[in-house]
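ARCHIVE CARD
CATEGORY: sequence design from structure
SOURCE FIELD: tokenized fold
FIELD CONTENT:
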């Protein structure tokens, strides 16, 4: 399995924005499981965070977890979220940056082992009813039907 390119692209865009003396902001899915952000600052399921080096401390952009300390209403808080929760990174001054498609939440990913295996031989542990129900549920969610892809795109907005 290949490592996601999302953390690499976010770091590259962050460096590019800072090198141009702009202010990098990240748009994060506030509903993504396990994130540590001040939810009272989220709007419409999204929180936009100023990640300029002068605005935060102890920035760590690891491949599996981004974290830093930031002040909200004078109170320092530690924030953390996986790169998969990032919907966009952009410069406050001009909106230039990069959007990312929403990622499935971890619970959806963990469902995969219960789905029927893709092989010519049926797994005796999965009944035809279970297999059909799982496929129907996935179709209903738009996962197997390419025409029903979620319309949830990133909405970049300039934060001043």
């Amino acid at each position: 399995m290949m490592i996601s390119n999302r953390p690499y692209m976010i770091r590259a865009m962050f460096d590019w924005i800072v090198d141009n003396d702009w202010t990098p902001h990240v748009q994060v899915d506030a509903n993504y499981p396990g994130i540590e952000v001040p939810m009272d600052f989220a709007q419409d399921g999204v929180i936009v965070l100023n990640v300029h080096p002068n605005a935060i401390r102890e920035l760590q952009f690891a491949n599996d977890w981004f974290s830093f300390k930031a002040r909200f209403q004078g109170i320092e808080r530690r924030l953390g979220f996986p790169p998969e929760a990032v919907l966009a990174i952009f410069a406050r001054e001009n909106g230039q940056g990069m959007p990312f498609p929403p990622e499935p939440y971890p619970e959806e990913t963990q469902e995969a082992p219960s789905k029927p295996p893709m092989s010519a031989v049926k797994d005796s542990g999965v009944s035809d009813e279970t297999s059909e129900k799982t496929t129907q549920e996935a179709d209903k969610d738009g996962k197997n039907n390419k025409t029903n892809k979620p319309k949830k795109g990133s909405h970049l907005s300039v934060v001043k």
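CARD ANNOTATION: Residues 44 and 125 are 41 Å apart (CA to CA). Confidence is low (pLDDT under 50) at residues 109-158.
SHELF: design records, drawer C
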